[in-house]
Design goal:
By secondary structure, the protein is mainly α. It is built from 13 helices and no strands. It has helices at residues 6-36, 41-50, 54-65, 69-80, 82-89, 91-94, 101-106, 110-116, 127-155, 165-181, 186-202, 208-221, 223-226.
Length: 240
């Protein structure tokens, strides 16, 4: 692997810049929400480093403060289990990453996956360096935003109701963008259908976990139809 170059850094920053701006804002919202529920900036920092799953973090803080520790754990687990599938699909791309591999898998969030799911990076950059920097920039933006939000929350007094809707807005945007960018819409259709069915049948209190189980099961069974065999070649890592 080559040393980091200015070109690698600039290319990764250009790719990450929309996510950086988004994560700084959403992370700040999360930090404010944490502070308003009695958890200061240090908790936001540790959460962003250890958990690093915006949806799970937003969901868990509300449930933890209401005393539903078991439900918070189960819901966070079901929400975050999708990262397993992200990681599996990146095995070929990360196969030669060496010591960087554990971190690349650990910090692979939805947005980073969307940026790195192609086989190569911008022309003229080291692909391994590019992947590392994009991943690092994205997580750093979330952690910094969370800490800043926690600090801001200690200084300002206001009604924080509705801040947790920020992640819903983000994932709606990501869903629409992925729908536009991809020709294969079956996973999205299955996910929406399973969620709506469970919501109508089971009600608003317990529908989420059953819906996630159904989605995971159906997508696993239909993976061969949804995702054609990978044509991974060494070309994606030609710059290593």
């Amino acid at each position: 692997m080559r040393k980091l170059t200015k070109k690698d850094i600039l290319a990764a920053f250009k790719t990450s810049s929309p996510i950086i701006v988004t994560f700084l804002v959403l992370g700040a919202g999360y930090g404010i929400l944490m502070e308003k529920h009695g958890y200061g900036p240090l908790w936001s920092l540790l959460s962003g480093i250890i958990i690093f799953s915006g949806t799970a973090q937003f969901v868990s803080v509300t449930m933890l403060t209401s005393g539903s520790v078991i439900m918070a754990f189960l819901t966070s687990l079901m929400i975050s289990v999708r990262h397993i599938f992200f990681s599996i699909s990146m095995i070929g791309r990360y196969n030669n990453e060496g010591r960087r591999k554990p971190y690349l898998y650990y910090a692979l969030c939805d947005e980073t996956y969307a940026m790195l799911s192609k086989d190569d990076g911008p022309e003229g950059v080291n692909v391994s360096n590019y992947r590392l920097l994009v991943t690092l920039f994205d997580q750093s933006a979330w952690v910094i935003g969370s800490v800043l939000g926690g600090w801001i929350g200690t200084l300002l007094t206001f009604d924080s109701t509705g801040i947790d809707f920020a992640m819903t807005a983000l994932f709606t945007t990501v869903f629409i963008q992925q729908w536009i960018d991809n020709k294969q819409h079956l996973p999205a259709i299955l996910g929406v259908a399973a969620t709506l069915a469970c919501r109508l049948i089971l009600g608003s209190d317990i529908f989420l976990i059953p819906a996630m189980i159904i989605i995971i099961g159906v997508l696993t069974a239909a993976r061969g139809r949804i995702e054609p065999p990978a044509t991974e070649t060494a070309g994606g890592d030609a710059n290593d």
